[in-house]
Amino acid sequence: MLEYCPGNPFTFAAPQYAKVRPSYPQAVLDEILTRLCPLVVPMSALRAADIGAGTGKMSVLLAQRGVEVDAVEPSASMREQMCHQMRNVVASVNERIRITEGSAEATGLATSSCDLVVYAQSWHWVDAEAASTEAARILREGGLLAAVWNQLDVSVPWVHRLSRIMRSGDVHRAHTPPAFGQFFEEPLLKLVEWSEVMTPEEILLLGTTRSSYLRQDGAGRERMQKNLRWYLYEHLGYKPAEEVTLPYMTLTWTARRLTS
After folding, report:
1. Element (H or E) spanning 253, and its range?
2. Count of CB atoms situated within 10 Å of the CB of 137
3. Would 183 be classed as within a structural domain?
4. Per-residue pLDDT for 12 more than 60?
5. pLDDT digits (tens, 9 = 90+) for 42-82
6. What is the pLDDT of residue 78?
């Protein structure tokens, strides 16, 4: 049974988080690494900090490109899930990832030790001023800061209603850049549209990974799942195990660290 989490909802991480939360399109990695290294250089020469790494989805994608990664995560339960996920990753990728306890505001990483600092689905949880100061400290001059968000494409009416029922609360606007602070250039946006195929049952599980769900007591969680079951099976008419195509968009904001 999931614990009731009125404070930080990810102190206890739903076991299905790694299973049903989507990864990130390869175009996002292309954008970040091209901005970081416009010239052809060995990816193995790069070191990245994945802040709020969660179950390690971004860390794995970076390591697959050859980047050395410090996966920084404050939640012990999330780090435990990340360790479990790494058992399924090939050794050549796994060995490029170091899992470490820390936060956006206090990473524990050395000064000027990183070429890239990325917040995948985590920047909205941080103290922006403290996090940007810490990112500037651990980045080398000219290094890159990136904030990445996957979100349902709520421009589609039925998806908009789905997100409201799940109370996803993660709708980030393309005209509202993150506040990276005085140490960084103005952020640039790359928008990638894509889709994922899931079953209604997987969407129900997806709903249980949202912070809005994790913060609820038992009655609140059951109510949210009941509404979601009604919407998927009765209102939209999906059958169990039927394929549902969920349209997504990924917002990637990048900014280079200013030189002193």
Report:
1. strand 244-256
2. 17
3. yes
4. no
5. 778 899 999 999 999 999 999 999 999 999 999 888 898 89
6. 87
Is residue 133 in a domain?
yes
Contact (Cβ atoms closer than 8 angstroms) between residue 5 and residue 214:
yes
Separation in Å, CA 155 to CA 29, 136, 140, 158, 159? 24, 35, 39, 9, 8
Name every residue whose Cβ is closer than 8 Å to that of residue 92 and which is 6 or more positions away in sequence. none
Chain-wide mean pLDDT for the chain?
89
**Total of domains in the chain:** 1
Whether 6 shows a pLDDT value over 50: the answer reads: no
Contact 55, 21 (CB under 8 A): yes
Look at residue 202 in the predicted model and tell me its pLDDT.
95
- Contacts of the segment 237-240: beta carbons below 8 A, 24+ positions apart: 238/200, 239/200, 240/199, 240/200, 240/201
CATH number assigned to the domain comprising residue 249: 3.40.50.150
> Is 237 contained in some domain?
no
Q: Which residues face 49 on adjacent strands?
A: 70, 117
Burial of 218 (C-beta count, 10 Å sphere; 0-12/13-18/19+): exposed
CA–CA gap between residue 157 and residue 180 (Å, rounded): 32
Judge whether 206 lies within some domain.
no
Residue 139 β-bridge partners: 114
pTM of this prediction exceeds 0.85: yes
- Rounded mean pLDDT of 151-156? 92
Residues 6+ away with beta carbon under 8 Å from 108: 72, 100, 101, 102
Residue range(s) defining the domain that contains residue 75: 17-153+168-195+245-256
Which of the pair, 38 or 188, is modelled with greater confidence?
188
Phi-psi region of 119 (alpha: psi -120 to 50; beta: other; left: phi over 0): beta
